Here is the input.
Amino acid sequence: MFTKMNQSKIKQFRRVVFLLDVLKLALTAFGGPQVHFTQFQRLLVNKKKYLDEFELKELNSLCSMLPGPTSTQTITAIGYKMGGPTLAFLTLAIWVFPACFLMGNAAILLTIFGLDDPKLSYLKYLEPMASGFIIYAAYRFIQLFITRKYHWALLIGTAFIGITFQLGSPYLIPLTLLTGGLISSYINTRGLVRKPKPIRNIRYDNLLLFFIIFVVAATIGVATQNRIFLLFENNFRYGSIVFGGGNVLIPLMFNQFVEFRHYMEASEFLAGVGFLQAMPGPVFSIASFTGAMSMKEFGIFGQVAGILAGSIGIFLPGILLLFFVYPIWNQLKDFVPVKNAIEGINAASAGLVIASAYLLFLPVQLNEQNMIVLLTTLFLLLSTRVPSPIIVLACIIAGFIF
Here is the structure.
């Protein structure tokens, strides 16, 4: 009895420590989902041993195949693995809160003080810095995932497709990942394969809740034309269909909130994208900014409501889908063809990161200052242990001085 009580206390303590580590990542994880993976690996795998590297790759592969914010789903899945749905929800809340709070308040301050310089010149070095982070992530992905000859073929092919089509379709990413998984499964699966065990205890409540919220929000939004319901519905829809993270989400939001609904000016939206580069945590927190900015006509309380509608709407669908899929995945992942598909999905993911790095580099002006920032960022990430926030702060200070 005493031993069981001790074990329970140890588990509770370990979960509290885990949540503190999630908070640390939420405050320091810059650079988007590709870079977040390397930071998860460094802290949660190498340093704290909450899971091993293969388990992290497994979860990342699963979440890459789902719509929604990949890094958010990955760290939430780690929480689920360690402590079930309750710890998963706490993990999600702690991970998204700092970024959503900061982005929402950035919109409120921008509304109060105005936007004198639409280009926000002091953020001018964040773009080459972000490009450096993504290039570093591509390098780390190659180190982690490319271990066999056919992996290189998948990486090059996926990168070529991603660059050619500029990751423009929301369906391009899941299709390339699925193709990579099928090729890997075919190459690695030999001989007779036992049938998988029947999947048991499938809970459809999260999937049902997903569809109910989708339909109800859309119906109320269309019927009432209430802006809060429309914001929630728009964000819930994007969180349900967007694969590949912020690179796909941001253009969709620009078209919806700037060009179609005219909730904000293009300069205001681009200012939010600029702020986003300086924020830790999930890229999907741009929804907190657009939610607040879309409600600027309704005062500060309206903007707070917009932050909540945008934040909850964008993150909720991906998490509901994860909660439905994760228990099924736990039963299927040891089935040989599925297990053999994981390395192909990871190799294709590495190719998509290379495509993202290339596409993010294209808008960067090829001048001396930008190249110094990009190369310095790469040097610091590859050769030193300078924390990411210090690099971001240094770039903002440089933007003020030069």
In short: Residues 13-23+31-114+128-188+199-364 form one domain. The chain has a mean pLDDT of 83.
